[in-house]
Amino acid sequence: MDVWLASSSPRRTQLLTQIGVDHRVVKPEIDELQFEHLDPIVMVRTLCVCKAKAVCERVSTGLVIAADTTVVYDNAIFSKPRSTEHAIDMLSCLSGKRHKVITGVAVMDATDGRYRLGHSMAHVWFLKMTTAEKEAYVATAEPMDKAGSYSIQGYFARFVERIDGDFYAVVGLPLAMTSRFLADLGYQF
Description:
single chain, alpha/beta, Maf protein, seven-stranded mixed sheet, 7 strands, elongated
């Protein structure tokens, strides 16, 4: 059975490969900013379905996996940074504090439109960062395509004090949920 990943995220590709899911990547063409006014959980779930449908229209058979991750602090959504200054601002807000990471996932059958949809959440605590540490981290370019301006599995791991919840939701693809959805729709591991 063909499996398509509706994402150009190398992290999501690595995670699917890690659990033995052979897949191909098709980047969905979705304006994600149009959904930022929604409640964060509604937003990630809506984006997942929209991304999956967009890719289903292009591939017509197989299963499509779509995911979306957002960081939430003090009721504000922290999406991908628009600039290095924006990344530093986000890290400044999160430094020394706890925030939520919410990742939605949808697995859709491109043939008949059946799908499974869910989300996973984790709380993440950061150590207090100095200005020099924030600037040095942003200079690595690692945070520039990440919600909240950080990569928990990368260089930034040194600033993560603890996590409560699904680690893979923070990375960007809740693996247990995704595996269950794939199996529900007929994928055999």
